[in-house]
Design a protein that fits this description.
The protein is of the alpha/beta class. Helix content is 41%, strand content 17%. Strand 9, helix 8 and strand 10 form a beta-alpha-beta unit.
Length: 413
Amino acid sequence: MAAISRNPEVRVHSFFNYTSLRNRALPFSLLHDMGMRIAIVTESFLPQVNGVTNSVLRVAESLSATNHQAMILAPECEAMPSHFAGFPVIPVPSLPLHNYLASALPLGLPSKKVQKALENYRPDVIHLASPFALGHFVAKFARRHAIPTVSVYQTDLAGFAGHYGMTLAHHSLHKYAAKIHAMTDRTLVPSTYSQKSLEDYGVRNTVLWRRGVKSDLFHPAKRNDELHSRWSNRGEKTVIGYVGRLANEKRISDLRYLDRDPSVQLIITGDGPAREKLRRDLPHAIFTGFKSGVELAEVYASLDLFIHPGPNETFCQSVQEALASGTPCIVPTTGGPSDLVTHGETGYIINTHRPDELVAAVHHFMMRKDRTQMQLAARASVVERTWERINSELINHYHEVRTHVRAMNGAVA
């Protein structure tokens, strides 16, 4: 077999020759040993910090550690790194999407630069992270050239639009997202909620693929007793925290009923456009600002109870990190977090925007005599879900779609 350059700058003189070479029959074990070339196309990347970016970072790290190659295509933004995990990061033209819709994600623009980068790189599989306009363009490109695609459904833009009263946009975005994912060979969804959401719009290629958690970092041992004592006024208050982006669609203002409770101390960790509004809505809350790494782990582990009231989360990594820290969680009945929590055992699944349900759940927790067992159960529910295990599943998905596409194009498996 002719050598294939692993330099993304090498130009492909004949894309047809590449496709023929890629489809040439090879034993599956040999394909695994020599590694694959993965083009990761993401709608968000560093320096932006969000669920999409974090998942892409963990995927890239895993590919780097397992003898695979990757290239990352992402919407251009200030201070974007040129490499990550040893892989090149290729910026593509973008617009700030929050000008048009409530989201922190920029809008990656389809362009000849994107097509040229893919032609030069010649991927075995294209990974589409939370695909939107950029992902749609690449999905069509991949279909024309019989390149296997794995898409990851991660951001419920339609749900955000619905929260802001944009009914027409809500339905249109659902249809648009479904159209993109239906074009790919396999769509990985993080929760049964998101799986049903896509299937309701006709997407049939969905497979559950959860998120990993750094259970060595997010650990009960990171609890800071001095910090908890200060927050709880030496044990007189129950410390309840939120971690995430401070934005209206997260419905953090619904916690105002808890903020008025003198037996509760709210801790709000994160930053975002709704910060000043939330300071007014929650005048008794402690705002820690953005935290990461060990500082964030200390926050999670030093809470008595974690809450995420956002109803449009496809998964909610902060809930999983809180559980790994041994902190029980309150989550809404809608969205992906309800997959993570077992009601009454590791937390509470309630209608979080109803004050009576919210206050009742918190007071029930305060009265429990088995809080230690609840904390142990919370950690046990996610501790085995390592990124190594999760990304091993992902690589198996890559192999399976590649084998399937090769077979569909007449290659001998």
